[in-house]
Model the fold of this input.
Amino acid sequence: MKKYILITSLILLFLNIKTTNADWTQCSGIYGGTFTSFAVKGNKIFAGELNNYYVIDGGICISLDSGKSWAQTSLTNTSIRSVVISGNNIIAGGDNPSGGMYISTNDGLNWSVIYTNNEYIYPLAVSGSYVYGGTGSGIYRSTNNGLNWTKPFSGVQVNALAANNNYVFAGTSNGYYVSLDYGFSWQIFPFNYSIGSFDVRGNEILAGTAGHGVFRSSNNGLSWTPIGLDSNFVYSVVFNGNYIFASTAITRLFSAINNTDVYYTTNNGANWIKTSLSGHAVRNLKVIGNYLFAGANGSGIYMSSDNGINWVQTGIANRYINKFAVSGNNLFSACDGSGVYISTNSGASWQQTSLNNRTIFSIAINGNNIYAGSGKDNSGNWQAGIYLSTNLGVNWSQIGLTNYNVFSIAVKDNYVFAGASLFYPYNDRKLFISSNNGLNWAASSLTQMVNTIIFKDNIIFAGTENGVYTSIDNGSNWVHDNFLVGTIHSLTANGSNIFAGTTGYTFKTTNNGNNWLSTGNTNTTNTVALSSDGYFVLAATGSNGSFMTTNNGANWIQVNEGFPNPLTFFNQYSLSIYNNYAFTGTSYGLWRRPLSEFVNINNISQQLPEKYFLYQNYPNPFNPTTTIKYEIPNEGMVSLKVYDILVKEIYSSSEYKKAGSYEFKFDGSNLSSGLYFYKIEAGNFVETRRMLLIK
Done:
């Protein structure tokens, strides 16, 4: 028989930490941001972004590769409604708390504030050195590329602006105004509808209206002709050759989320054709080079090079990732503001599913059923409840709890458990249960906000705003454990241990909640998320970063390498261990790190084990080495054996061991790929686990 190397190491009685140079890296593909406007300067594209509930930063973003990737400029944490280029200057208008605009003379490296009497600047337009800014009470004008401003026109709220040489057009809620002298004087023109957007091409003007579709003028606005989409609110219109594009919604503010679309016509509105970009609440359309850009509400930027037939999503990787779920080789993420994403390659790339443009708080999978718990969509409309997909997210249907925010979901056999509450201020909090895969729902007797649910043995554990509750009858009855109080943010089971993330500490129980002990984690902030794989336990602690233990919480190591420093605005919200990677959802998007980079970080327990336990080997699958760990509470003979798929013994050892925790490194260099088994016998304890060698 060939020799196989099995290195045995007794875990020492002191903490031994070996660090590595490995880092967390930010993943691309889960994009976000609410983008309102675009402007081009040479090979640079600038985009204005709102700063709202879904976005960690607003401000101005820049792309140097024709929109394929984006980065923040130094203007952040403010809502930008519009951006234009005038001369060498970039001018941005929006919700500056001090009122006014921002100007940069060095491509966004630095910004200065232009004060305008505490008025927000919404639309901007430019013609030569003239720049125009619309406010709630009139129009500001600059004649020197935005350096100095006056207010020649007052008394009207301006929703849209466009400029063409000496002509300036202002859309309002009561028609439109025209200036023939670069904005110095204005006259009103009759128009019966509210105008929210313009596009100008020579003497031709497009106007998007509120509830009355698109209008077109071929004589600088002297007369107008309706050209279709009559009942739609049109938020952006744009010329592109013989194409006209319009982003629409059936009702104001994108509140009908299933009726937000981008249309095009090639025959002046005789026919309008819906593009494939549906349900994304597009705020702005812009033609840049050979691409049509769409700035969406909450889900980033979309680009099309074939006039809307196909779209590619891009933007800023700053989605909040609320939860993860795994189905086979597929990893799903539940995101704030942009729905559910799927990755088929361990997070290297992501694809948005058709459940988009809304906040997904929770996600769980059982067989082919994927359950997603929703809240409001990106227009503030509540499209809440539970959604179901049976085809990996290609299609979704709303299956219940339509009046509730669903903050947690867990699935066991045919039972689906959902922790939910009514809309803000989140009252009527309870746990709902379905016993038929979500077909019907009933409220349980647990009337607490349920943040997390796990299963261990035949017990259901529910982490609530008031400690942990357990049930042994599929949720018919619940018992409070009386040991943990306060909010439980997360629960995870690791072997015989259950960990609870709370405000200030991480607790664990080894006896199914009969009592809980602090694990010694020294962080003093919320433990907001936990994940485990039978070997590692990871804890996310809000703005203190990540901690890791390999000895069930006796010692914790901070593992923040690669995260931004300082972590002041870097908050974590979720964790998952999948396919030999650790994933964490943060306020700066999704990050991942290979678990193999944690292997060389060894922490050694000073506590004796409380029971016999054989851990799952790590990593698994492996090539060519893997670590096997076991714990014995009593001294005695320990037998370890390894078998191949034909149950042929390929390794055997029998040694006398004192009570403690032990690790072995198994080397499969001389073995063929395949399934292997490892078995331990100690006292009356016998257990066998599987491991997979892939070369």
User: Anything to note?
Assistant: The CA atoms of residues 481 and 500 lie 13 Å apart. Confidence is low (pLDDT under 50) at residues 1-21, 253-258, 600-604. The chain has three domains: 31-314, 321-511+526-556+571-598, 609-693. The longest strand covers residues 358-366.
